[in-house]
Write a structure and sequence with these properties.
The protein has 582 residues and is an alpha/beta fold. The chain folds into three domains: 3-153, no CATH class; 286-431, 2-Layer Sandwich (Heat Shock Protein 90), CATH 3.30.565.10; 448-579, Response regulator (Rossmann fold, 3-Layer(aba) Sandwich), CATH 3.40.50.2300. The protein is built from 20 helices and twelve strands. Helix 16 (468-481) links the parallel strand 8 and strand 9 (486-490). Helix 2 runs antiparallel to helix 8 (155-240). It is elongated. Mean pLDDT is 80; it is low at 153-159, 383-388, 390-397 and 441-449.
Length: 582
């Protein structure tokens, strides 16, 4: 028979019968200890050593019962314990005084009294009472030595009382560890249940995080795919209407609106990647003034027709060429300008770009509503805005500034702001951007509208993409650059492999996400065929997850471009791959 378990089950049943305030934690111990003392006192009152003791025992019983009732009614535990210990100490002092002093068996009870404060209140309370009992016992020792104590003939009662006293004390010393063992088992059971609950919550959170990442990846892909068609066809149209200024102007507005929409899409995606630590910096050399001007011009149509003084001021000493992540810099500038215009209805919004040798200070200053001082610590928190009414009055998702600050830090800079209610705000960030040499070849490649060396060659391309609009866009871009080219189309990876078996091609443009067989598996199988190992394969995908992109590259790509892409950049990249085959 499992005795500890039997005892624990029995104790649980008894505890369930106790008054409500005596059930939790250590309270059952206190209740049974007091009940034991009451029982002992009632027993002693039947055969007292002296008649006066009977009334003392009964008074003590009444006091303890009243103390239990007062605790059940709401008396604080420390008060109850200290009051009970105090009255017990007074009773024992009287008993020991009249029953032999230091030689009395009752003095053992003095060493039991500190147990209750120790277990029920704190170790400090127990230690204090223990010291007090030592002083009392020392006083009895001194009194017995000096023969100050009265000598009563109570020898006939000592045998029975000694037996009772030591029996009960022994039982107390045995029961107390058993009670605490039960408490330990119960506490362990609660802790394990709590740990199990936490583990379940952890698994749920991990699953939710994976689902969130999966959802954001899908949404990003589904948003970027149509944006690829919008940006691509807009660029194609723009190249064909250069002689029509009004059409050029309209298409430029469309392109800027598409860029702004891509910024919003990228904010959502960047938040996810920043959380996962997957956002990477891709450095490139570019003209600093052009990027700042481009960000500024995105909002010209918004302020046109208003009285707002919207302007850009760029330091004459700024370097022409710098190297950093152009897209991330553009993203931060757009976020700051968009915020300034959202909260400024009159006055001015000024973008300043200043050279600090060797570094650049970007700042956006407005005369808008400003930010109260007590709310400024919320500005860079995710999904937070200075005022709960801001979102309802001005819109926004509370991500722009949080992402901007992290992007600036990712680029090795710092961001801050100054603001006052009714006086406007100034948001700034500083980047270390030393001057770079002009990358002439890269500049020529960017500015050259399509290939120059292979334009008349009859190349054969294979475009694998499950979206017909994307296939049409890529086909049109390729046909514009290489009029004599032939473009084959496949809707998935398996169909692309089948077409490669039927006819030879010079270059494959492979999407990543496709039904039946995706681009990663198709590229992997393509490279396993000896005849296709040197065939150039360019990845075209709207999936920007770094892990997926790396998997795509390792499958055997020569290069990869993200959607939406610039037609000129696509053609230049394609020509570089084709020239390697000549």
């Amino acid at each position: 028979m499992n005795m500890p378990k039997l005892f624990t089950d029995l104790a649980d049943g008894v505890v369930a019968c106790l008054p409500s305030r005596f059930r939790p934690g250590r309270m059952p111990y206190a209740f049974f200890f007091v009940a034991l003392i009451i029982g002992v006192l009632l027993g002693y009152s039947l055969y007292p050593a002296l008649p006066v003791f009977r009334w003392m025992y009964l008074i003590m019983v009444v006091f303890l019962v009243a103390l239990l009732a007062a605790f059940q009614k709401g008396l604080p535990l420390p008060w109850a314990v200290n009051l009970g210990t105090s009255i017990g100490t007074l009773l024992l002092i009287v008993l020991v005084w009249f029953t032999g002093g230091i030689y009395s068996r009752n003095i053992a009870w003095l060493m039991i009294l500190p147990l209750t404060p120790l277990y029920m209140v704190s170790w400090r309370a127990g230690a204090a009472w223990y010291v007090a009992m030592l002083l009392v016992i020392s006083g009895f020792g001194l009194g017995s030595y000096m023969q100050w104590l009265p000598a009563y003939d109570v020898q006939q009662f000592r045998v029975g009382q000694a037996y009772t006293t030591y029996s009960i004390l022994t039982m107390v010393m045995i029961v107390v560890p058993m009670i605490y063992d039960r408490m330990y088992v119960n506490a362990l059971r609660v802790i394990r249940a709590y740990q199990q609950e936490l583990e379940t919550k952890r698994l749920e959170l991990e699953h939710a995080l994976r689902m969130r990442e999966h959802f954001i990846g899908i949404v990003s892909h589904e948003l970027r795919t149509p944006m690829n068609a919008i940006v691509g066809f807009n660029a194609l149209l723009l190249s064909r209407v250069q002689d029509r200024p009004e059409a050029v102007k309209a298409l430029q507005h469309t392109g800027r609106a598409a860029d702004h929409l891509m910024t919003v899409i990228n904010d959502i995606l960047d938040y996810s990647q920043l959380q996962a630590g997957q956002l990477m910096v891709q450095r490139e050399t570019f003209v600093l003034r052009d990027v700042a001007l481009h960000a500024f011009e995105l909002f010209l149509s918004r302020v046109r027709g208003t009285s707002l003084d919207y302007r850009i001021e760029q330091d004459d000493a700024l370097p022409t060429w710098v190297s950093t992540d152009r897209h991330r810099l553009m993203q931060v500038l757009v976020n700051l300008l968009g915020n300034a215009l959202k909260f400024t209805h009159q006055g001015s919004v000024v973008l300043r770009v200043q050279w600090e040798n060797p570094g650049v200070l970007f700042s956006v200053q407005d005369t808008g509503i400003g930010i109260p001082k007590e709310q400024q610590d919320r500005i860079f928190r995710r999904f937070a805005q200075a005022d709960a009414n801001i979102q309802a009055r001005y819109g926004g998702n509370g991500l722009g500034l949080a992402i901007s600050r992290q992007l600036v830090e990712l680029l090795g800079g710092e961001m801050g702001f100054e603001s006052a209610p009714g006086q406007g705000s100034r948001f700034w960030f500083r980047l270390s951007l030393p001057a770079c040499e002009s990358p002439e070849r890269a500049l020529q490649a960017e500015q050259t509208p399509g290939p120059t060396q292979t334009a008349q060659m009859a190349w054969r391309f294979l475009v694998a993409d499950d979206h017909p609009i994307n296939r049409l866009l890529v086909k049109q871009v390729l046909k514009n650059a290489w009029p004599n080219a032939q473009v084959l189309e496949a809707v998935n990876g398996q169909q692309a492999l089948d077409l490669l078996v039927q006819s030879s091609v010079d270059l494959v443009l492979m999407d990543m996400v496709m039904p039946e067989m995706d681009g990663i598996e198709a590229t992997r199988r393509l490279r396993q065929n000896e005849a296709w190992r040197t065939l150039p394969v360019m990845g075209l995908t709207a999936n920007v997850n770094p892990v997926d992109l790396e998997t795509f590259r390792q499958a055997g790509l020569n290069t990869v471009m993200l959607k939406p892409f610039e037609p000129v950049q696509l053609c230049n990249r394609v020509e570089q791959l084709l020239l390697q085959r000549l």
